[in-house]
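Lab manual, section 2.4: Encoding a predicted structure.

Procedure: take the sequence of the chain (493 residues), apply the prediction step described in section 2.3, and record the output as structure tokens. A sample record is shown.
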Amino acid sequence: MIISDAIISLVWKVFLLVLPISSFTLLSKVLGGTNVAPLAMVPMLIIIILSWIPDFFKNGRKLPFQTKPLVLFFLFGILATLLIPLRNVPTFQGISQYKTIIDVVASFGVGVGFYFVTIHTIGNERQLRSTLYWISIAGIVMMAYSWIQVIAWYGLGHYPDWLYQIQTILSSNGVLFPRRATGPAFEPSWLAHALNMIYIPVWLGLSLKKKSVFEKRLFNKIQVEILLSILAVLTLFISFSRIGWITFIFLVAYIVTRQINKLINKFIRTSDKLNRSKPRILFYRIGVWIGVCLILIIVLLIAGFVLTKIDPRMVHFFDVEALRDKGFMRWASKLVFLERVMYWIAGYRVYERFPFLGAGFGMPGYFFQSTVPVYGSQLLDINDFMLKPFFLPNTKNLWVRLLSETGIIGFALFISWLIVHWRNAAELETSENKELSEAMGLIGKLILIALLFEGFSLDTFGLPYYWVGLGLIIAAWRVRFAAPISGSPQKSD
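Recorded output:
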């Protein structure tokens, strides 16, 4: 190796500590003003250049087999992009198609870099534990800063100048949102995205599996991760990110349904009333799950009612009359949600034009003027973006982006890559190893469920959170089932 394992370990800790900073101002300027400029990119590149690349070529290591669908996805995306000259792509604001393609490929490369660095650097159980520990430390700092913002707002009625000065350093837009926590992120929804993709799954998974990366308990009784989970949920709440709330609700729903299924199976095994009768067992299962679904619907309705009282955007959530008489578009407009739907529809219409191969990396935005619904063209937000110089609209939805850029084939390859991670997470959770493997299995499943819903809000490849989360799954799987990765720091954690 070019540099020592101890230095790589130190750089990795720095990587984890700066992970919450999603749009570092200085880095954003260096990259030409892009909003997606995570500070973790700097230590990531150091590890890639000084450790991963030398080790890869020196030892002739193959990429983990789990990455094959991702490699195929990228190659297929490149193929679709090479066919762009045959698609008669319209111009938009004079924005160069070549620059757009380079930007997309570069952001994808950065994302893959986060993924590979995570897999490469975690080579044993001790490093996995250390990684989760430093993730927790970074999360504590992120939440503390978020609460300082909210306390300042509600205590003073405004944000003090010194808080703006800090935010100007940490975030390229330097904006603090009234009544909403942003933390060190670019905007509140990005804070919620980080919480749902990394911190909440890690702390919930460790809490539920009764595993801790902290040596001591609070008051010698309470596991630290339990307190961190509660604080993370409260921080998610003060972000007022609706997709963040929805994602968390489904994470809780998954945890609850898992537990209920265990109780059902236990009751079936021990009950004399069912007498192992398949019809009775089926009837019992159906009855229980109907009851569970009704309870979840009631909980969602109660949550919706509460939100109408605390979030101005949700006041018309139960406006059934507007939904019935004026349609979904008008109702969504009242919820300040319609603009995002317009982007989704515009992207999906590009997929309908090129269903098998897609339009190519970065191309859907060029079709925006012809694919955005007429209703959408009347919205001020969309008109502002269409007239904004050198701005190319995006789909604002990862799943629509995959379909529109790479077609159904590329979409299937990407989904198959995620399915491999779910399978590995399931193998970890059922592993006989009782260190962190079982907890990492549940953490991995929560990360994948979170990605499913968070993907409806963000479409960028450049943010590190789901890449690092997925990398944690593969790293934990390799620690448990495969030989340690050669070249990863073994002596220092």
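Check your result against the sample. Residues 484-493 have pLDDT under 50 and may be disordered.
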